[in-house]
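CO-FOLDING WORKSHEET

Operator: S.A.
Ligand of interest: guanosine-5'-triphosphate
Run index: 314
Mode: holo prediction, single chain
Checklist:
[x] sequence pasted
[x] SMILES validated
[ ] output reviewed
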Amino acid sequence: MHDSQKEWVDKILAGDRRAIARAISAVESGEGVALLKGLFPQAGRAYVIGVTGSPGVGKSTLVEKLAGEYRAGGARLGIVAVDPTSPFSGGAILGDRIRMQRLTTDEGVYIRSMATRGQLGGLAPATHDVVTILDAAGCDAIIIETVGVGQDEVDVARLADVTVLMLAPGLGDDVQMFKAGVIEIADLFVINKADRPGAERVEQDITAMLSIAPREDVWRPPVLKTTATTGEGVSQVRKELERFRAFGGQNDLSLKRRREHWRARLLELLRQRLFQKVVAERLRDGTIDRLVQEILEGRSDPYSVVEDLVGKNP
Ligand SMILES: Nc1nc2c(ncn2[C@@H]2O[C@H](COP(=O)(O)OP(=O)(O)OP(=O)(O)O)[C@@H](O)[C@H]2O)c(=O)[nH]1
Ligand SMILES: [Mg+2]
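OUTPUT RECEIVED:
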């Protein structure tokens, strides 16, 4: 690493906001590998909290209140709001910014919005790296808000130490959720908009479902009710998050999570790198269209094309 890189790393480790912002931009544009290597040894201390749920359940509102709770305890905080770029919930970016405005003047909170680039739900490509940066920069907790649409919630669960699944009455998403099996990823259920009718119903449904299909590990996910707009119930969410953290440390749970996380991440990085190395550089300038045409015309088949590009399996 050259001196300027080293200086950059040191600034990030000291929590310098401009250096952090620059680092995030770098990893978002696919650069910053040298930087991440320098930061990685200092990361791994933050509590990474994933907050997911259908569009409009109140994730941003809750995250802001939760951040307030953590700040009151003196913790430094990172917030990553992953905004879907889909027409599904257009305006989410603006919404998040406005709702978290109160936090933007707080020096102890670092907020960043990221776009998923066309994916409907799930994570933005650089989310993992952004977490590493904020973690190394000394954030005690990092909250990641993602819009969950079915199976994509699994992405955030893999990255986070703990996953909060939010629901709200009247959104009709409970049935959809059971189908997708998303429920298994939740360490904590939060039924928001408890001020609205129907919250008890959702609570009963979740509790009933948890009793029929208990988790494999010993943690029993609590089901909490909140009214994020007034902040009611939010301190309980924080308490349960901390209880889970302590619990995960006592059992092998958090270690097991981290092991799974880095295994998946490693495979993903390998996949990316191998793809770039082997395929991307051989598929320049319309090569893919030419190959597709050959397949369509029966002059070749996809299996042979793949073998030609990357070689035969041994
Ligand atoms: N009545 C009521 N409204 C709420 C509550 N929490 C949030 N809202 C409102 O619900 C709307 C959506 O809240 P957000 O916090 O933006 O929801 P979100 O899940 O972040 O939405 P996306 O990021 O677009 O998926 C806003 O108008 C909030 O004011 C609540 O507890 N009760
Ligand atoms: Mg939001």
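REVIEW:
The radius of gyration is 22 Å.
DSSP finds 14 helices and seven strands in the chain.
[x] output reviewed
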